[in-house]
Amino acid sequence: MRLFSFKTTILLFIFFLGPHVVYASKMFTVQAGAFSSKNNAQNLITVLESHGIRCTEYKQRGLSKVHCGEFSTQSKADILRKKLSSLGFDAFVLPKVMKNPQGTRKADIQAEQPAEASISRQPETEQLPPPVTSMPKVVPPVEDKSEPKAREQKQEVISPPQAPVLLNRVVAVVNKEVITWSELYRAMESEAGTQIENLNAEERKKLFKRSETSFLESLIDARLQLQEAQELGLETTPREVTEAVETVKKKYSMTQADFMGTLKKEGLTFEGYKKRLSEEILINKVVAREIRNKIVVSDDEVMKYIEDHKVNFSGNVNYGLRQIFLRKPVGGDKKTVEEKAALIIKRLRDGEDFSALARVYSDDPSRKIGGDLGLVSRALLAKEFAEVLSSMKVGDYSAPFWTEKGLHIIKLEDIVSAANADAVRDDVRKKLAEERFTKRYKSWVKGLREKAYIEARL
């Protein structure tokens, strides 16, 4: 007599083995960072907790890795990865590897837990996979749709055996947010543009190393301004971002295909570009509200300036100029300066904004206001300037030319007749407003820094 049917036997067998076999499946986690310093890992965990993301530190081969969550499917883990990416972290999904009772490493035998309930749960017996560090990328990483194990194998194949391990570490803490090494270098490469196209890896490294401290300060300032905008309840709408994209395309006469091609060339995704644009719009909003919209230049101030500087308006023609000035090197080696000027010219030919390049490269104090020299009388120009301007039209920029002080690139923005008093007054008003803005902006940013918690770690 059969006491049990075949189906019943199977159910009993499953019952005695326990649910950990019934629901066995591969589990996934998200790595948000890997650090040589335990303190850096703990700081990142604290920052992520402020965003509602609970993470745990894992020690492996001298590294402190920050793993977030435990998920039953890769797609669920990818949701958290995208959230971390939106916060500026180069996160990626990894399989969780466990030891079975016999001590054999397996990734396929682990009890499935609801992802939402297991974010803070990290089994003590977990063994991590071979080290896969977050390599610093100066362009946003392209999402890899392959299986996690296959992706690790690809990294092992393409990595040079003796290549140094570079970690995506935290380089600054700004209140409760962090700035990562890869975020800093993405910003520097974006700003450098075509300047680094013909440089080898060692030359790029030296260029970035010289610039990283000043660039980090700029990123800290930008982060403070974004935080201030959020405190004031300001935001950027999708429509504003779309209109800004269309403005850029129209300014440079670009089709959608041209625009997407340019983003690809610069290592940007469309979503990444829109995020950056959204932040720039938000910063402009808070700066306009707190500073620019409060600046008023009276008629009396304009007339006083004209009177005090009347020699500048006494000639027949006044030029509205911007310049990028490269100081003559102390050692007299002009080649390096000329190579730098050639790169600036190439960027101008590629359609980049003259004033933006002046802020980055110019050694003249006018760099703070985009190289704006205001109105200059032809009678007061050095002969080298007068000769170059004689063949230029409004909107033109010059080839680099030397004076006794250094190398100059100028842009002719306007030609104003001394008889055109209205144009002179308008230009003076703009000049005074810009000078006042620069002074107040610096004071405002200084105030943001004084009331913030900032820790730079370069």
What features would you describe in this structure?
Among the domains are: 17-158, Sporulation related repeat (Alpha-Beta Plaits, 2-Layer Sandwich), CATH 3.30.70; 315-417, Chitinase A, domain 3. The protein is an alpha+beta fold. The termini are far apart. Helices cover 46% and strands 17% of the residues. The protein has helices at residues 6-17, 19-22, 38-50, 74-86, 148-158, 181-192, 201-231, 238-251, 256-265, 270-290, 299-308, 334-349, 354-361, 383-389, 421-450; strands spanning 27-35, 55-60, 63-71, 92-96, 98-99, 105-106, 170-174, 177-180, 317-327, 372-377, 401-402, 406-417, 454-456. Residues 1-25 and 99-167 have low confidence and may be disordered. The strands form four sheets. The protein has a four-stranded antiparallel β-sheet, covered by helices on one side. A four-stranded antiparallel β-sheet has the order 10-9-12-11, with helices on both faces. A three-stranded antiparallel β-sheet has the order 8-7-13, with helices on both faces. The chain contains 15 helices and 13 strands.
Quick take:
With 458 residues, the protein is an alpha+beta fold. The protein has helices at 6-17, 19-22, 38-50, 74-86, 148-158, 181-192, 201-231, 238-251, 256-265, 270-290, 299-308, 334-349, 354-361, 383-389, 421-450, and strands at residues 27-35, 55-60, 63-71, 92-96, 98-99, 105-106, 170-174, 177-180, 317-327, 372-377, 401-402, 406-417, 454-456.
Write the layout of secondary structure elements.
Elements: H1 6-17, H2 19-22, E1 27-35, H3 38-50, E2 55-60, E3 63-71, H4 74-86, E4 92-96, E5 98-99, E6 105-106, H5 148-158, E7 170-174, E8 177-180, H6 181-192, H7 201-231, H8 238-251, H9 256-265, H10 270-290, H11 299-308, E9 317-327, H12 334-349, H13 354-361, E10 372-377, H14 383-389, E11 401-402, E12 406-417, H15 421-450, E13 454-456
Antiparallel strand pairs: 1-3, 1-4, 2-3, 5-6, 7-8, 7-13, 9-10, 9-12, 11-12
Helix pairs in contact: 6-7, 7-10, 8-10, 11-15
